[in-house]
Amino acid sequence: VQLVESGGGSVQPGGSLVLSCAASGFTFSTYAMSWFRQAPGKGREGVAAISPGSGRRWYGDSVKGRFTISRDDNQRTLYLQMNDLKPEDTAVYYCVRDIPEPFAYWGQGTQVTVS
To answer: I need a labelling partner for 54 at 20 to 30 A (CA). Which of 15, 31, 80, 100 fits?
Structure first.
């Protein structure tokens, strides 16, 4: 199993970024997928999750209305569209394989800095 995030960077408040996660080594379409983040000095926080087939999506309260999770099963890629970014969104963002074997595999993370 391999999860490789990309798309992080530095952006001003109010800006946008799109994170991508390229998945390999498992049947991507059959797993729920999640994004987590970890800010400096804080624990990991669930940001968003998406079911197989994209029928259900979940968002953390702090990102509702600003972030959108999506997936392309043909490309085996998970996305996180982040709009109206705030300084408190600064964190390392992780792509995580979820149900039916939640949190067993994590990507290496991509840094997002909003300032």
So the answer is: 15
Contact criterion met (CB below 8 Å) for 19 and 5: yes
Q: What is the pLDDT along the chain (115 residues), one digit of tens a residue?
A: 999 999 999 999 999 999 999 999 999 999 999 999 999 999 999 999 999 988 899 999 999 999 999 999 999 999 999 999 999 999 999 999 998 888 889 999 999 999 9
- Can you tell me the distance from the alpha carbon of 62 to that of 2, in angstroms, rounded to the nearest whole number? 28
